[in-house]
Structures are given as C-alpha cells and as structure tokens.
Amino acid sequence: MSLQLAPGDYVAIVGESGVGKSTLLNLIAGLDRPDGGRIALDGREYASLDEDGLTALRRDQLGFVFQAFHVLPHLTVRQNVALPLWLQGQGPQAADGPALQLLEAVGLAERADSWPRELSGGEMQRVAIARALVHRPRLVLADEPTGNLDPANGEKVLALLADRIRAAGAIGILVTHSLEAAATADRVLRLTPEGLQV
Asked: What is the pLDDT of residue 10?
C-alpha cells in the first residue's frame, strides 16, 4: 500500500474485523515496526529513529484517541488534558491555559476539576479528544473512538473530532468498522487483505 497525506487531510480507514486496521495504526504511530517499506512524518523516516526518537515523535507530533478512552482515573479532567504538555516539559501553570481552552472547545470547561469517575462515556471521550489535541500535534490517530458510545454521543464525538482536526490543520486518520463514522472524514479508504484501496 502507498498513502501520502498533507496537513488538513482527514481520512477514514475501514475494513472487516481482523484485516489489520489497528495494526496499520500502530505502525503509523511508531508503536510497531514494519517488516518492510517506509513510514515518514515530515520527511523523517521512522526507521532512522531509535526508541527514544520514536518516543519523542509520539510525544511531540502525535495525538491519540482510543476506543477505551484511557483517561487516567487519578488525575482530574484538567490534569488529564494537560498531561501531554507536562510530558513536553511545561509546568502546571503553563499547561493550564491550553488545557482549559481545549476543555472549553469540547464543552467541558465546567468539569475541569471533576474526576473521570464522575463523567459519562461521552464526556470521557471528549476529554480524550482534548488531550489528543492540546499539544497541537501534526498527526491525530483515532482507533474506533465511538465503539463504547451510544449513537447520539458517538455522532457528537465524531463531529467534534473532525472539527478540531480541521481547525488545527492537522492530519487525521480515523480507523473504524462503521461506514457511518467513516462518512465524517473527507476521504474513505478500504483496507483489505490485498492492501489499501483508495
């Protein structure tokens, strides 16, 4: 397969269960290494990076939205969103402003000091989206981000994700088995055992 994306592109990758959608996302994220071929972000080939380099790439350039939210229960909503900025070396005061701005953008400013256990599934997914975008990543990866949500909340989360990716001028890749979810992207690509069909 061959795929090249530019800033502002938002694509969905669909396919049957087990065809390799999550594996492809893990390769793009640098979590797995390919057996062959090349993956590059802004001209930097992943193969040229050691584990520290890949960790820095993920920390600074990538944003992740997972199906299972992965909101940390021992941090408040504000702290969860600020976490990527802390990992980049920003102190709590410097990270607070951007975190609150993103929480405002996702409609959760009033829940900034709440604990994750106090949130609904839809609210936790919005926290996950805010956290994925707070450090202005170049590439946002979403793996079945509505799989644990009811249809109404799923629709809201997908609209929010698409809007925030486009507003940030990031590249967005949504992996899903849902054609309805895929329809929120600008292009839909199908992954089959034979490869990626544009």
From this structure: 95
Tell me which residue range forms the domain holding 140.
10-69+121-197
- The reply to whether the predicted model has a pTM over 0.85 is yes
pLDDT given for residue 95 in this prediction = 95
pLDDT tens-digit map of 81-133: 999 999 999 998 999 999 999 999 888 999 999 999 999 999 999 999 999 99
- 126, part of any domain: yes
Q: Say which DSSP state 50 is in.
A: -
Position 136 in a domain: yes
Q: How far apart are CA 142 and CA 182, in angstroms?
A: 11
Question: Would you say residue 44 has pLDDT above 80?
Answer: yes
154 inside domain: yes
The HSE-up count of residue 2 (CA atoms within 13 Å, CB side) is: 0
86 inside domain: no
DSSP for 86-133, please give it: HHTT--HHHHHHHHHHHHHHTT-GGGTT--GGGS-HHHHHHHHHHHHH
For residue 48, give the DSSP letter.
G
Q: For the domain that residue 58 is a member of, what is the CATH number?
A: 3.40.50.300
Coarse DSSP helix, strand, coil percentages of the chain, rounded to the nearest 5 percent:
45, 15, 40
